[in-house]
Design a protein that fits this description.
The chain has 708 residues and is mainly alpha-helical. Among the domains are: 165 residues, Neurolysin, domain 3 (Orthogonal Bundle); 69 residues, no CATH class; 247 residues, Neurolysin, domain 3 (Orthogonal Bundle). It is 57% helix and 6% strand. The longest helix has 37 residues. It is globular and about 85 Å long. The chain starts with a helix and ends with a helix.
Length: 708
């Protein structure tokens, strides 16, 4: 019997035993602010909790279906929104822990519950008796006297049914259920493969000769030495495909071969024709997504997915991306020419073979750092000591205080799933509760790459009028503290922390009545506005002076360093934007496919990059086999939304700049109102209400330095 099968039976046995014991996931937790009792949850609690929560959810829906009264907005639409609260809690705990601190046992459980959840969802959406009740109310919508939020809930509920197959004939409904279940399992497999490749022994690079690390900052060497010692290699240095590990090497290490090796380890993950290879997973996902789109009468997955977004169709997205791609690529080519000159000088001085004379992707970060120092006298290692993690977080909190009056209090002795997690109470100026915020910032073996925000518990107002405040989490993969240094952030890390905190504010400030419309339940090309808006504040001088203190001396960041940071603000933006947009275009190319027959993933990527005119010196931000956004986390045909929302966020920040006050009270009040609305209103309508007009794309192009 294989170890995997043994583990399956162990989990089942433990689950059966747990059925007769108290399960903290199935009880109202006796915890501060009713947060989940993470410290009491054991692995054996999860499967029984899912089974019971799904049973209760089904019973709640059956009660709506079997209600003999004529369907109304309250007894059908609102009642449906209020189902699944127990399941929300179980899902909120399990999947957040799985993503941030998972293990093989949890992966096994995820593989079991994914089809169960898919079956539940399809059983609700594809239940004709339930849909007929929803449709009965929807057809009378103009006579019901609903307020805008109620109308939005009704409209979105009906569209959710229709867009997910309620109007399909029975044979197509049956096939849709099969597709959804298989897609759920494939998504899990894709993500697990990426994590396995990132943690694989094959990509653990142990350096034994310190001379190979010439140029690498001492802080990065110390971190690598600690990683090596923890892996049983004292006296060596360990580097892996985790960004916190390899990025300093790309940026500072003189050894070109080591830079190449580490970048290739990162960019070829899950593309090695082994058990963790994702090419077949991608092909099968695309086959199923295309088939699913055609069930609904669409030629390709992109148009099926985009119908409910601001963009509406792939033609709009393609035209938008093309309009930004041209100036971005032109800027990247200019930047590449500058970096090539620096490489030529280095090669001339070192007399290295001319075969290595062309600037390569593993050269870009290294020579960009050199050029930044030369142009702006800006050395990121000189800045990092001012970006101690807890201070940066205080800076982000401080922006929210000045904009919205929010207060943050660290809570001790709270239940957490890992000792590195910290918890904060968020209140209004008058002390009333806004929500609870968890932060989990350091990499670990069971954490997926990247940074994200999730709900642990959603915001909603119940039938008795009680406003249930949300529990939100921010997760990252920043540098861990070492024996000699605290966690010091790069400038990219600082922006990431502010970004994810912007998502958290979107969730925390929610004032929706209905959970399906609360917080970040908005169109995907709108949801990045609050997060990217917050990034604008990170390097504003008056904000920097509130959080950028030298971790050793306590000195506030000097004006000359602030000037350098802002002078370099438009530096390397061709690279940054081109790397991002190429991933967005690649995503759209995949999802504009009308067939996946004969799909060769690597060849398709190459063809896509050639078509867009991508230069050889830059690697697309996410290559297909580790592109979690579009093959795992629900951003398929949606990665463009980061740039789409960048137009909105640049324009929104310009609204503050135009007043001469970054925290101008009336403008802040209007923007907070936008955040509070969640998905209760049309996104474009909300933005125009805030700004008084549609967003001007020129604000983004000016910010990046592409136009005057």
């Amino acid at each position: 019997m294989s170890n995997k099968i043994k583990l399956f039976y162990i989990v089942i046995a433990m689950s059966l035993l747990a059925c007769n014991k108290t399960n903290p996931l199935l009880e109202q937790p006796n915890t501060p602010y009713s947060v989940p009792a993470f410290d009491q949850v054991k692995i054996e609690h999860y499967l029984p909790a899912f089974e019971e929560a799904i049973r209760q959810n089904k019973a709640e829906v059956e009660a709506i279906i079997n209600n003999e009264a004529e369907p109304t907005f309250e007894n059908t639409i609102v009642a449906l929104d209020r189902t699944g609260l127990l399941l929300d809690r179980v899902v909120g705990v399990f999947f957040n822990v799985l993503e941030a601190d998972g293990n093989d046992e949890m992966n096994e459980i995820a593989e079991q519950v994914s089809p169960m959840l898919s079956e539940l969802s399809d059983g609700i959406i594809l239940n004709d008796a339930l849909f007929q009740r929803v449709k009965f109310v929807y057809d009378q919508r103009d006579q019901l006297g609903l307020n805008p939020e109620q109308m939005r809930l009704l409209t979105e509920t009906y569209k959710n049914f229709a867009d997910n197959g309620a109007n399909l004939p029975e044979e197509k409904k049956a096939r849709l259920k099969e597709i959804n279940q298989e897609l759920g399992l494939l998504s899990l497999k894709f993500g697990n493969n990426v994590v396995a490749e990132t943690n694989s022994d094959e990509v653990k690079r142990f350096v034994t000769d310190e001379a190979l690390l010439k140029g690498l900052p001492e802080s990065a060497k110390a971190a690598a030495a600690e990683e090596a010692a923890a892996a049983g290699h004292p006296g060596e240095w360990l580097f892996t495909p985790k960004r916190t590990s390899f990025t300093p090497v790309l940026q500072y290490c003189e050894n070109r071969e080591l830079r190449k090796q580490l970048l290739m380890d990162y960019t070829t993950r899950a593309n090695h024709d082994n058990d963790n290879d994702n090419k077949a997973v991608i092909t099968r996902e695309m086959e199923l997504r295309i088939e699913k789109a055609k069930l609904f009468g669409y030629d390709n997955p992109a148009d099926y997915i985009l119908a409910d977004c601001m963009a509406k169709n792939h033609q709009t997205v393609d035209a938008f991306l093309a309009s930004v791609w041209a100036p971005s690529l032109a800027a990247a080519k200019r930047e590449a020419a500058e970096l090539q000159k620096l490489l030529d000088e280095d090669l001339a001085n070192s007399q290295q073979p001319t075969a290595n004379s062309q600037l390569q992707p593993w050269d870009w970060w290294y020579y960009a750092e050199k050029l930044r120092k030369a142009k702006y006298a800006l050395d990121e290692e000189e800045i990092k000591p001012y970006f101690e993690l807890s201070n940066v977080r205080k800076g982000a909190f401080g922006v929210a205080t000045k904009l919205y009056g929010l207060q943050f209090e660290k809570l001790e002795n709270m239940p957490v799933y890992n000792k590195e997690v910290e918890v904060f109470k968020v209140t209004e100026a008058d002390g009333s509760l806004v929500g609870i915020l968890y932060t989990d910032y350091f990499p670990r073996a069971g954490k997926r790459p990247g940074a994200w925000m999730n709900n642990i518990l959603p915001q909603y107002i119940d039938a008795e009028g009680v406003d249930h405040r949300p529990v939100i989490i921010n997760v990252g993969n920043f540098n861990k503290p070492t024996a000699g240094n605290p966690s010091l952030l790069s400038m990219d890390d600082v922006e990431t922390l502010f970004h994810e905190f912007g998502h958290a504010l979107h969730g925390l400030l929610s004032k929706a009545h209905y959970k399906s419309l609360s917080g970040t339940n908005t169109p995907r090309d709108f949801v990045e506005l609050p997060s990217q808006f917050m990034e604008n504040y990170a390097y504003e001088p008056e904000v920097l002076k509130t959080y950028a203190f030298h971790y050793q001396t306590g000195e506030v960041i000097p004006d000359e360093l602030i000037a350098k940071i802002n002078a370099a603000g438009k530096f390397n933006q061709g690279f940054v934007t081109t790397e991002l947009l190429s991933a967005s275009i690649l995503d759209m190319d995949f999802h504009e496919l009308t067939t996946a027959e004969g799909l060769d993933v690597n060849a398709f990527e190459k063809q896509s990059l050639e078509k867009m005119g991508m230069i050889d010196e830059i690697i697309v931000r996410y290559r297909p086999t580790f592109y979690n956004h579009i093959f795992t986390t629900g951003y398929e045909a949606g990665y463009y939304s980061y740039t789409w929302a960048a137009v909105l966020d640049a324009d929104a920040f310009a609204a503050f700049k135009e007043t001469g006050d970054l925290f101008e009270p009336e403008t802040a009040k209007r923007f907070r109102h936008l955040l509070e609305q969640g998905g209760t209103r049309d996104a474009q309508e909300l933005y125009i209400e805030f700004r008084g007009k549609e967003a001007d794309p020129k604000n983004l192009l000016r910010r990046k330095g592409f136009i005057e």
